[in-house]
Fold:
Amino acid sequence: MAVILWVMGLSLLLQGCLSSVGETNRGCKSWRPKGDNVCCDACHPGNRLVKQCGPSPKDLCTPCEPGTFTVNPKNYRCTRCTQCVGAQVFLKACTATSDTKCGCKDGLTCGDGSCSFCVKKCDKGHEPTEDGSCRPCPEGTFNDQSHQTCRPWSTKCPNQDQQIVAKGDAFTDIKCNASVSSIIAPTKEEWPWVSVFTIVGLITFFITITIAMIVGKKIKKTKSNEKTPVTKTPIIRTPTDDPRTLIAIECSFHEAQQEQGSSSESLDSKDSSEQLIA
Structure:
């Protein structure tokens, strides 16, 4: 029984807390006493003022009706939500504290801060006019962004050691030559990157040289192994009128005759021996 009573008490306490939280978003948010009544200085967001003073703060303000909103905490009326029509496109729904958010179709842009109407979107080199059209940037001005007002050309370069090398046009500002200091001396933020790029470049250079030397040696060794021995062809000399050549030929001829004679004598002696035996 005690447990049931405890649960019922807790439930009533939670309901009271929730109802009190809900009431904080309704009625008057800030008030001051005035005799037996209180007077409201500001309603809760999304509420409109019903009457300035009364016996209860929650009766001084009431929430905006559906389809309306208010941003003023002391307004007596809520404003009807905007409807996106014509060239407008719907982006976000209306709430009790904010109006509908509309945009514009492609090629158009909002004509005011609340985007209550759309105008033609001006390209670079042009600027919007009061009647919603676009005009080219006048001489001496430029615009490098879409649908922005043209700005005057700069009268000098950003650095003292620079000079103007070309005037601007409707799309760009003046052109200056490169700064000597920026080329010679990198900034402190650039030094780490410069060091890294230098080290990487040196390593790459030495690796490339080493690979080239190794490849060159291998190619040279392969070519030397591919060389075939040259066969020398004997040179045959024909007889000439040179006395030394004639003497050599004559000697060769006599030696041949002597050998032939020796052979004949051997044959004769062989025949004689055969006859004696017979």
Summary: The CA atoms of residues 162 and 268 lie 124 Å apart. DSSP finds four helices and 17 strands in the chain. The longest helix spans residues 191-225. The first strand starts at residue 28 and ends at 34.
